[in-house]
Amino acid sequence: MTAPSPARIAAVFPLVAGVLAVMAYLAPSAFVAGKPAIVPLLVVIMFGMGLTLTPADFSRAITRWPVVLLGVVLQFGLMPLAAWAIANVLGLDAPLALGLILVGSVAGGTASNVICFLAGGDVALSITLTSIATLVSVVATPLLTWLYADAQLGVPVASMLISIAEIVIVPVVAGMVLNLWIGDRWRSRDGWCALGSSIAIAVVIAIIVALNADSIARMGLVVLAAVVLHNLVGLTAGYGCARLLTGDRRIARTLAIEVGMQNSGLAVALAQQYFSAAAALPGAVFSVWHNVSGALFAAACSRSTRRAGHDASDGI
Prior knowledge:
Blueprint: H1 6-26, H2 38-50, H3 55-63, H4 65-90, H5 94-105, H6 111-119, H7 123-149, H8 157-182, H9 189-211, H10 213-218, H11 221-246, H12 249-260, H13 264-274, H14 277-308
């Protein structure tokens, strides 16, 4: 059987994810039971991505430390500032403003690695950025929340490190080991891994929509506008700065996704634990929206690559 093209999979991914998301919103009870499957699905996705990577990919990512530094600076320099500015311009109530600032102060989310894969970005660089930003967030998240919102919170350092190890590092390393063992005996694995990843992340998005259906139903347009603007700032700044400074479209795609997609699940958990349900609303909405915008971005990148007839590094 011919392997599916990763680019074509990414092109139809928003449609599949969108249909499932609408179904989950209209009938959340059919999807909420899948909550325990979110982490296992992410683990499977990361294992599949490991099957497409080699140690050399990470060696190249580490040697590009200026790009990693740029990503971290944009993540913790731009995103919380943008959240604070948007909250003030739109006149958000204090709890909602706090929630948006909290979203801007956390690291990039695990789903960014999947979207990067589907967009034809540099997956090894994406994983490197996610891991380093998570470590930095241990100090940066509470400091930035205090600075911009004058609010105190405790960040679950140990659980964050354990989660990034269990969900990202261990399955990716396991996939890389299997990849080295397989060698050239399964040349079509990239396509099949892309298909599996797109299906799994579409299911994850549907479950997230179902879990946040009530929040989505009662949110005001101003909250949605704030979340969309915040995400757009991250995507645009990540792409634009990387494109300007490196000239590499593949790196630009990677930074756009890493900066634009936040660990909003952590932001929701922190808001609920230390503040209020209202403060958790921006994170809940962001959890849905950044997956939708990421899917659309990945599809646009894939269409650009196919239209140009070049590798991802030469597309738009």
